[in-house]
Amino acid sequence: MTRREWAWAGYDWANSAFPTVVSTFVIAAYVTKGIAPDPVTGQVMWGWMQALAGLAIGLLSPLLGAVADAGGRRRALLLLCTLLTALFTAGIWFARPEPAYALWALLCVALATLCFELGTVFYNAMLPEATTRARLGRVSGIGWALGYAGGLACLVLCLVLLVRPDPPLLPLDRGAAEHVRATALLVAAWLLLFAWPVLIFGPRDAAPRQPWRRAAEEGLADLLRLLRGLRGRPAVLRFLLARLLYTDGLNVLFAFGAVFAAGAFGMGFEEILLFGIALNVSGGLGALAGGWVDERIGAKRTVLLALLAMMAVGAAMLLVESKALFWGLGVSLGLFFGPAQAASRSLMAQLSPPGEMAAHFGLFALSGRVTSFAGPALLALVTDATDSQRWGMAVVVLLLGGGAALLAGVRAPRG
What we know:
Elements: H1 3-15, H2 17-25, H3 27-35, H4 39-71, H5 74-90, H6 102-125, H7 127-130, H8 136-163, H9 178-194, H10 196-201, H11 212-229, H12 234-265, H13 269-297, H14 299-319, H15 323-334, H16 337-351, H17 357-369, H18 374-386, H19 389-393, H20 395-407
Helix pairs in contact: 1-8, 1-9, 2-8, 2-9, 2-12, 3-4, 3-12, 4-6, 4-11, 4-12, 4-17, 4-18, 5-6, 5-9, 6-17, 8-9, 8-13, 8-16, 12-16, 12-17, 12-18, 12-20, 13-14, 13-15, 13-16, 14-15, 14-16, 14-20
């Protein structure tokens, strides 16, 4: 691995603390179980918040990606998104465990999620310039593995320093859930501490820097031209549609995994953290293996295998009543998270022409977010109608299956 490759992949280590601690395991459970009146209401509230955040991400990511391509502003926009993600994440600290603070908590998480996802557009667009075409799958997989390792390390710190100690190591009021709320401050500090290498040693913008207004005008024109040309590029269009479905399923899984574990199996914050640590270990191992598999059988086949495996294991997790079986299935499910995501990223890089990378990764983000309100909204509606978290989570299997069916027809690039 070259210094540029390590600098690029290291950003996954930095920013993965946010989805791991905030979106999935700790803050999600805290908002839905500690702030909301009851777990079912909390899951419904969390679902609508994720839906609105996803809609904003879907609308903004392609446009900002095209602006970054036209104006040579990927690094500047990545820096801005990183700083705003840290700021809004830190704001969660002020959300006390009372229903009156639910709106504040949801607003902070929504804005932080928006900035986090927009930042990944510019980060992912740097991948082809960070390495060679032959190493796209491997470097993407290593980055995703570092992301799981970073999320794991941050989770361990949350557990050891903040959540588990009683009495607390720091002057934190457990009655006011300060030991849980402080995990948001740790995530913000983690992001600021480890994000800088890609901004200094990562790939430089290939396009010359232009004034913001001109970049916006050219970016909008390029985006419209790109969208009109998708009909003539069936592989790209079909892949984006497939990813629209299966990433919606993954987003629901990540956003509601801890919520489901807390409500259906009665897991407390400490046990959810331990479950998250186990998932990150298996996820990191799976991402490393997925990079190797990607190089040998191709990105498309790697994603397909991962989706089919997640459908089978996920369906089993919804049927079991034993917490021990749920744990075992969850850890095995984690093995397929990384390959599905990392290979999707490398496939998008292979399908995208040079000079339009950020715009295509904007569409990549759009495909994962433009209908991301549908998954959480559907989950919220099904959960509300059936009064069952299990039936609500069943939408994940359907979304993964639909995405796999579409992806099977994509003609992947050779070499």
